[in-house]
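It would be a great kindness if you could assist me with a short task in structural biology. I am sending you one protein, given as its amino acid sequence and as whole-number tokens for its backbone shapes. I would ask you to consider whether the tokens describe a fold that such a sequence might reasonably adopt. The full record is reproduced below for your convenience.
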Amino acid sequence: MEKLFTRIANTVARVAGLPPTFAACCLIVIVWALSGPLFGFSDTWQLVINTGTTIITFLMVFLIQNTQNRDGAAIQAKLDELIRVSEGHNRFIGIEHLTESEVEEIRDKCERAAKRHDEKIATMAAKKAVARKRGPKKQAA
């Protein structure tokens, strides 16, 4: 059942994002609007478009959420594998399962570490620049 749903969800998501699908939806709305005078702009005429769009929107929300969940999980698995095989810290694998405050704490630690690293690199670069300036003067003397 899960594979069938996944196949259907992928197909619908792919088709829903195509330009011809958008054009068809626009055409439906135009035909509906043009048919207004024919039906006297009745409540039933309005109910047709309202019901149709509500049902489609309701179903698409779940379909899009399913697709995004799978895409997010696939990307997370790829990132976890890159962390695992690199010199990155393995403790970051699986952090998407933590609470928002726990993830925020880790992010803050990473930002502080990056800032310290940037400061260290800048200090080293400044020392090298000073050493280069002093180097030629010593050789000339």
